[in-house]
Write the structure tokens for this entry.
Amino acid sequence: MEEELEKNKPSYRIDHRIISAKRHVYDWLSDITKETEISEMVEVRFKNTRVDFFLNDARIPLKVGDVVAVEASPGHDIGVVILTGPLVREQMNKHHFREDIEFKKVYRLAKQYDIEKWEEAISLEHETMIRSRQITKDLGLEMKIGDVEYQGDKTKAIFYYIADGRVDFRQLIRVLAETFRIRIEMKQIGARQEAGRIGGIGPCGRELCCASFMTNFVSVTTAAARYQEISLNPQKLAGQCGKLKCCLNYEVDAYLDEQRDFPSTQDILKTEEGNYHHVKTDVFSRKMTYATYKDGMDKFETISVDRAKEILSLNRKNKTVEKIQSDFGDAEKKIDYENVVGQDSLNRFDNKIRNSKRRNNKRNVRTNKKKKVVSLDKKVDLLKNKDESSNKKDSLNKKAIVNKKEIQPKKDTISKKNVPTKNKSKSKGNRNFQKNNKPKTNNKTTEIKPEK
């Protein structure tokens, strides 16, 4: 089993830069071109973002992903083919390559010996970078060596460094050549290229653009933020490299096209109410907000771009407008908190119940809400039943009154001494006073004398 695995092993170990490198262009003609056609020019990638164009003089049938040995000065280098076919000419025109220049040649497809030597050179890069940093520190140079790239035949090394200004590294080159016994080449890279080499996650949550797909770094200025009405906050506008974010340039063209017919933000609108100064612009909705400056910023008005241009044209003719006439100010409403999802109020813990009466009132409200709605037919039946019950009660009350009249004696026959006296309470609301002063009655029964 182990013998079969060893037989199936690839002839060379694939380096990490072949798998995880960025593609400069997508070959959309790969399915259209004929297989018999052999491209004269090919694009080859090396470490980091270094690419170059080479002449396929020997007409070797190459495809994307092949590892090739190419001409270098001096010796040879090992790289990976990333583009073939007619799109190579388009890329050359894009990078302003002239065809009358003598291009370096592709020697051959990389052999096993070339791959093994290339892997040995790659294994020395990290150790060389750490040692070269210590040398620059000892020499007191204000620069940082970010990366080292060895040539495929181990005869030359490229040192990538970062520096704010110009650095005299002649003494450094002598020390490095004596230490590593190779040819030395120094290349300065920017902070953006360094961030792309290290990689990371941006504030948007995605991988850094410079580490994923960007190969050409265009200068970014604060004017791009001004055109897009972005606040000039350096902490938010700066990326991980410490420079302005590259994504500020992505939508600048759309904003510039939309703002072609917009009036200048420095123009003042003159009205009878006062002079209005520009505050902000909503580009794609074509609205402009102005405000007066009497006691600070006061009386904001949002108008359309056409209305602002109309007022400015009248001002140029020495005419003033009675009112700025806000077109969108009345339509805009302030969005307040709404109980859309059925949530409780946000300030439910702020108002504390002070009296027990509020609790009772809330309970009554809840019970009233829970009561069922009675139909009209049921209401009519209930009213009829009430009338019948009330008639029965009236008849019963009349009978009781008649019986009482028969039983009650006449007033003259009752002795005045035995009649209880009524005690009037001084205060109507004092119930305790009424309870304590109840009328006292004698236990003796009243005698009724028959009439003669």
About this structure: The longest strand covers residues 76-83.
